[in-house]
Amino acid sequence: MKNRLFSFLLFACLLVPFAGAGAAEQPSISSGRTMAVTFDDLPFVLEYWPDVSTMRDWIGQLLQQINAGQVPVVGFVNEGKLYNQGQLDDAKVGLLKMWVDAGVELGNHTFSHASLNQAPLDIFEQDVIRGETVTKGLLEERGLHLRYFRYPFLQVGLTLEKRRAFEQFLAGRGYTVAPVTLNSSEWIFAAAYIKAWHQKDTQLMQRIADAYVPYMEQVVKQGEKMSVDLFGREIPQVLLVHANALNANQFGALVAMLKRRGYAFVTLAQAMQDPAYRSEDNYAGPDGESDLERWARAVGLRPPANPAVPAFVRQAAGLIAYTYGGY
After folding, report:
1. Is the separation of the CB atoms in 230 and 189 below 8 Å?
2. What's the Cα-to-Cα distance from 68 to each of 37, 62, 65, 265, rounded to whole Å?
3. First-to-last C-alpha distance (Å) of the chain
4. DSSP assignments along 11-33, one per residue
5. 52, 84, 204, 275: which has the fewest Cβ within 10 Å?
6. Which of the 8 DSSP states describes residue 244?
């Protein structure tokens, strides 16, 4: 126990923020809280397969709230969602173009949302390459390049050997792994919300929406505490949420809560300039965890469980919460 405590204190001391690096791009962290926001499962989570017209409306609502809040965003794409019966669907590609046209940077989330824990390494790498085709072209049309990758389910591999081999593959293709510090059960709320939408249960939809932002505030508070426990300060956070109907309805309220807590929004690149993002992380195993959780494990600490999802939300989600999948 003494050795573990010593390791933790040493780790925290080494990661006290230093002046200088990246100061031209990143706002002063000492002046207030900062956060980068990322969306997974672009162009949209195909919950219960709503029609393209409905998804277009929801994406439009979500993008309007992103722009109104002046939130820089990176959106991670599953290009498998762009296909219909094995053929690239122009209408679904149009949904993805909506994000790029709104100024959102795109990243790779694999073609099929596969798990590195389950797929053989070579198959998983091919899924990454296949997931570049459309996204890379859309970015290049705008003078940008594809630079970020996000692990589906936040699963980094069952063995460190496999994880490191995959990271070498990513580096060879010019990717940076996008971190996550605020990981949650938002996707269960979203599953419950879309199920209620299909059932035309507007009262339940509102009840779920009303519970969502307070739950997310508990997630944020927990992330703030974890960062202080690990680094002696609050670090720039990286939030993971999904492109779904719930956020099309509630993202503006989520942004308002974060601003009330003193957050300014920065790019993912700016957040990652903080030295915390160079912390030791040698995790491999079955769990999909945030970077904060893995950093805690690296110094022998057991990360806390996510705040509990209200029972009525879990009940409303039912089996879809597990087939819909998260992250």
Report:
1. no
2. 14, 10, 5, 12
3. 34
4. HHHHTS--SSTTTTTSPPGGGSE
5. 84
6. S
Q: Could you tell me if 47 and 194 are in contact, meaning their C-beta atoms sit under 8 angstroms apart?
A: yes
The angle at the Cα of 244, spanning 242 to 246, to the nearest 5 degrees, equals 105
How many other C-beta atoms can be found within 10 angstroms of the C-beta atom of residue 235?
27
Residue 25 confidence (pLDDT): 37
Q: Are 152 and 113 in contact (CB under 8 A)?
A: yes
* pLDDT at residue 21 is higher than 60: no
Task: Give, as one character, the DSSP assignment of residue 182.
Answer: B
Tokens, residue 98? 């909506």
Query: Kind of pairing, strands 105-108 and 263-265?
Result: unpaired
Q: Find, among 161, 187, 164, the residue nearest to 247 by Cα.
A: 187
d(CA 19, CA 11): 18
Helices (H), the chain: 2-14, 52-68, 90-101, 121-130, 133-140, 160-172, 186-198, 202-231, 245-260, 268-271, 291-298, 311-317, 320-323
Phi and psi, residue 263, nearest 5° = -85, 135
pLDDT digits (tens, 9 = 90+) for 2-19: 343 334 333 344 333 322
Confidence label for 204 from pLDDT (cuts 50, 70 and 90): very high
Distance from C-alpha of 302 to C-alpha of 296, rounded to nearest angstrom: 7
- Measured in residues, the chain has a length of 327
The pairs formed by 53-59 with CB atoms below 8 angstroms and a separation of 24 or more are 55/95, 56/94, 56/95, 56/98, 58/244, 58/245, 58/248, 59/95, 59/98, 59/99, 59/243, 59/248
Report the alpha-carbon distance of residue 204 to residue 189 in Å, rounded. 11
Taking only the tens place, the pLDDT of each residue in 93-103 is 999 999 999 99
β-strand partners of 239: 37, 182
The mean pLDDT of the chain is 89
Residue 186 and residue 218: Cα distance in Å, rounded? 12
Closest CA to 273 of 43, 7, 28, 58: 28
